[in-house]
Amino acid sequence: MSQHHLLQDLGEQPQQRAETADRLRAQGIDPYPPRAERTHTAAEVVRAFEAAEAAGADPATGSVVTVPVTVVGRIVSVRAMGKATFAHIQDGSGRLQVYFKQNLLGTERYALLQDLDIGDFIQVPGPLFRTRTGEITVQAQDLTLLAKSLHPLPEKWHGLRDVELRYRQRYADLIANEDVRHIFGTRARLVTVVRRFLDERSFLEVETPILQPLYGGATANPFVTHHQALDRELYLRIAVELYLKRLIVGGFERVYEIGKDFRNEGIDLQHNPEFTMLECYQAYADYTDMMTLVEDLFQTVAGELADGLTLTYQGQAIDLTPPWPRVPLRQAIQDATGIDYMACADKDSLRRAINERQLEIPPQPTWAKLVDKLFGKYVLAHTVQPTFFIDYPLALSPLAKKKPGDPAHVERFQPIIAGLELGNAFTELNDPLDQLARFQDQSQQRAAGDQEAQPLDEDFVLALMYGMPPTGGLGIGIDRMTMLFTDQASIREVILFPQLRTK
To answer: How do the pLDDT tens digits run along the chain, 503 residues long?
Structure first.
């Protein structure tokens, strides 16, 4: 067989295994047959045998009666002893021992074991028994190769310590590391619990466009693409907020979406350009209702995934028991830095206050960005226990409703746990003319150098003109929530295929 340079570049073992596959083909054995048969998973085999043991022995023979099984899986270990061989195979449910004996399989079938390698997939039928060490085992009556592995598996303890290699070759990472498979199993369960939680509260799951003619709903730079047939620029969405609120206008009272957002930003421990968000909106609710919803959601998820309302994250004990403290943002920043941002009316005066205290905040294009950086560095990063930071400056929140009696602030909160910014929520702005004025102010901020300021969305303003009831809105980062419940410090550990720099 002519070998592609990739096979040659991988070294001697893949080439030898490819030659073995060719030799099998010459013997009439397909190393990649189109079908497999399975009656039991590894976990089901154990349950079936234990149930048979519990039912007792056959009075006629004195032996345990078991149904024959056919199992499949990847070979992960082999121990040959002349005319007998023990192997372990692994499927999605666990590992199982298989016993091959030459006088049962026949010389020709038993010889096939010589052409099998760690990593190959096989199919084995046979009865079950316990070895002298007590291990439940399949006694092979036949052997079928299902897929030949050309690349050696990574060594469990030595092969995948390179973090970047683990992310680039996640398939190998999943093979080698059971704890990694557990993380993504937990993530899937978390999403299921979140979805069920909202469904049980009469929220309707919907889908909104990923390709949008105008991005909005967050402060971020978008990814830009081009639609050839329409000959126009489109944007990958940075949030689903403005579309979900259009649905509230249209008459749906509770809606949510769990889906991908995309932000053209840097990569770090808490940021990936492609990430998963939950956003939900509830008519006739406000941000206090959303706080209760968050507490109830985290309680529910903890009940399913953790041992209770306490968990450990990066060595820190976290107590999710509600109610969580509600701390005004202005107070939190003042307590942490000594700066009352309301006493610093513009960017220059706030910059002077920062410099006077020798705080490590780099220059920012706007007053609002300086406030946000103060919060992130000196408050958020040092918050361990679950806390709602509430009532944000108007300039930081162009889509939130003003706080009655305090027009400089809006009804907004963020839930913070162990330095993780887990979400964002508002009492939603539903005054169309106020919203129009906010968009126009965002345009001025963009002109002042803030490239993440939101563009004017005239159609959204038009939607609000039809009337939107008082509404509470909430966004929760699924990736960061998974980080919390799986005790992972990096977002890349909870995203199967994170974005990486070119090699």
So the answer is: 455 677 677 778 999 999 999 999 999 999 999 999 999 999 999 999 999 888 876 666 666 667 799 999 999 999 999 899 999 999 999 999 999 999 999 999 999 999 999 999 999 999 999 999 999 999 999 999 999 999 998 876 455 567 888 899 999 999 988 999 999 999 999 999 999 999 999 999 999 999 999 999 998 999 999 999 999 999 999 999 999 999 999 999 999 999 999 999 999 999 999 999 999 999 999 999 999 999 999 999 999 999 899 999 999 999 999 999 999 999 999 999 999 999 998 999 999 999 999 999 999 999 999 999 999 999 999 999 999 999 999 999 999 999 999 999 999 999 999 999 999 999 999 999 999 999 998 888 888 888 888 899 999 999 999 999 999 999 999 999 999 999 999 999 999 999 988 87
260 and 206 housed in the same domain: yes
Give me the residues paired with residue 473 across strands: 281, 426
User: How far is residue 216's CA from residue 421's CA, in Å, rounded to a whole number?
Assistant: 20
Q: Does 212 reside within a domain? A: yes
Note whether 263 and 191 are same-domain residues: yes
The reply to whether 299 and 248 lie within a common domain is yes
- Global pTM reads 0.92
Contact 464, 401 (CB under 8 A): no
Residue numbers of the domain that contains 32: 5-147
461 close to 217: Cβ distance less than 8 angstroms: no
| 3-class state of residue 174 by DSSP | helix
Of 87, 146, 75, 143, nearest to 111 by C-alpha is: 143
In a domain, 165, yes or no: no
